[in-house]
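A favour, since you know our structure tokens better than I do. Would you make up a two-line entry for one protein for me to read? Write everything out right here, beneath this request.
=====
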Amino acid sequence: MSQDTLDGVDHLKRSIDWKQGLAIALGVPLLILPSLGYLPSYVAAAAIMVWGLSILQTFFQNTAYAELATTFPEASGLPGFVQHVFRTKNYKGKYDKGKLLGGFSAWSYWFAWNPVLSIFAILVGNYLHGLFPALAAHFTEYQLGLLSGLVIFTGLSVVNWFGLRDGAILGYILAAVSLIPLAVLTIAPFATGHVDMANITGNWVPADWAWDAHHILIIFGIFSIALWSTGGWETAAIYAPEYKKPGRDVPKALYTCGVICFFSFVLVEAAVIGVLGVDGVLAEPISPLIPVAHAVFGQAGTTVTIVMLIAAMILIIQTAYLGSARALHSMAEEGNFPKVFGKTNRQGTPFVAMFVTAAFNMALIFTGSIPAILAAAAIGYTCANGISLFAYVKAKTNPAFAKLERPFKAPNGWKWVALAFGLFNVPLCLVGVVYLNSLEIGWTSTWLGFVVLAIFIPIWLYTQREVRSDAEKELRSGAAGSDDVVATQQVDRSTI
């Protein structure tokens, strides 16, 4: 199918600038929260270096993504331009394998971002359980997670119903409420002398660490888990169809967010390990910032920290909610998902995709397991990044894309950088995260990840039948219209 958009799919509206895109993406630094205690459990204080290296990896990757986002300004970030690059123009056969690959990458991306909603809804329930004894007396952490998800998803659906501009305004508010106190909580331990550098230098790697096949696979898996958190700032590019000036706004939003993320991820982990030590972090793997706040600010600071973290979690849920909905919209627009997901309301919000995303995450919350959800999501994100980087290589080498305008260009030879990191993601990090999952929580999360990814194939086959059916109806309608024109002409001649 050669048409750029499908009948029944609506275009997103250009209504934001780079500052508003940045505001929505500013929830990304909070993605460190689920893994603050997870990474040190495998690599001790070297987790600080892993976060830094992972952010540097995303700088290399996002430079390629920024070029793609401005080369294909109508495409929604990773899921959009990958589908566009791999789509075969004027394909005549029944099934376009390139189109399937692009659609699968977009589906992987959706599945990677989507569980952010459920993971942080569960975390909100955990923090509420610890903050309010009255709630703890009547509800379990599991029940509070379900209630938190229902309330947050409903509230965000109402806010974002009125368009991306209002979502950006909410991002500004929540950024002020959460990120500024988070920065204070990160910097304060260093300023007050609560950070003991011996906690970092004295336990840099586990005592039993060895560079054998077992630990190398763990490293690949750790980088896959870390990338799920650090790679999130590429979401600033997913709003390319909604930026007023994509060529200027996309790079500004991306790189500004990247610098913020670098210092945030490195300093947050350094502060936590510096105050608590590796053993102290492992004693509070889900919420290590709470004892840090208590050590620095006392009981009152602990309460403020929990309230701040809840606001921060709503911010990252907002970021993931918008990104996931637009990934589904992009898939419908490219003919890789049923066209009903491309429907938008008067404000340009892809409301069907948004509501389905919320419902799917409510189902995930019922599992009640953050590690299982995160591990499965990391599989999807690793696949999405690998295929997206291969798409960049194709876009740079295929003559069909040679003459396209590129408002932002990566340095010369960047296709080889993209190829190297593509291969790092798939197969190395993919194999690593599967191996890590088998050690940590068995094979449940791995099967969950691959089953959800595999579901895309029958959905895609159904969509292709839907697309062909619509095309046939259009042809018949066009033929009928031509017959009417001929009949009218004959009548006109007969009256002369």
Q: What stands out?
A: DSSP finds 17 helices and no strands in the chain. Confidence is low (pLDDT under 50) at residues 1-5, 485-496. The two ends are 43 Å apart (CA to CA). The CA atoms of residues 107 and 210 lie 37 Å apart.
